Amino acid sequence: MRIVSLLPSATEILFAVGAGDDVVGVTFECDHPEEARSRTIVSTTTLPPGLSPAEIDAAVRERLAAGEDLYRLDEGALRSLDPDVVVTQDLCAVCAVDVDDVDAALDHLGCRAEVITLDPMTLDDVLASIERVGDVTDTRDRAGALVADLRTRLQRVADAVSNRPRPRMALLEWTDPPFAPGHWLPDMVAAAGAVSAIGAAGERSRAIEWADLAHAQPDQIVVVPCGYRLDGATALANELLAQGRLPAGAEVWAVDADAAFVRPGPRVVDGVETLAAIAHPGVITAPEGLARRVN
Question: Is residue 192 one of the residues assigned to a domain?
Fold first, then answer.
């Protein structure tokens, strides 16, 4: 089987369930595991590098309004790889090549690859998508074992925080403009033993006003900007503090968004453990290097 992955999370899942050897094509963002970097890149961004969050937001809105693509699919590379399966998504135009563009490219190339779309909206959906990849790649046993282990870890967190007060935690999925989290992120907050002060599970993330964040009265604010690692998220959190954007009295944290939060793969459970350690210090041992307090 020859597989092209057009999602960093799908690439991670494919390797985690034992189908990594079958992965022949990936996106420019696929960086986990390290071995994924050795595969042919078939998708790149059309956005220039070095933009600020405000500039990225403006560019995305402008291009979407004009019907322009945010990603460029390398049809030549796709043709040369001759995949049997292409894994993509139909959830967010900002996250990957649009599934309609994938279908059109395959039709144009005369490729008969099966297109699999992974569109998780909740934490349970994320786990279900791992099992679905296992079904498609004939790695059901390994996928099932992985999901069982992830559920065990989630239950361990639930047991540890079950009788503790639940702080109000606000995740900022973008900083300029501020975005309340959606999809599986509020579920992660709940699984960590906290109350999601902004955003709703199973819904799309949405722009809010800074007054909305203040009105939510969060005990903790976690800066989790899509596309950023820990150092970048820390810099953005420090900017918000310097600008006086964040409610006084709240703890402010930055996290490695790409590693364990915004990519719906196995490492979201690392993210849940990290949020639990933030919400309930000393109760949960979180993976190292994923979070940093900035105030």
Answer: yes
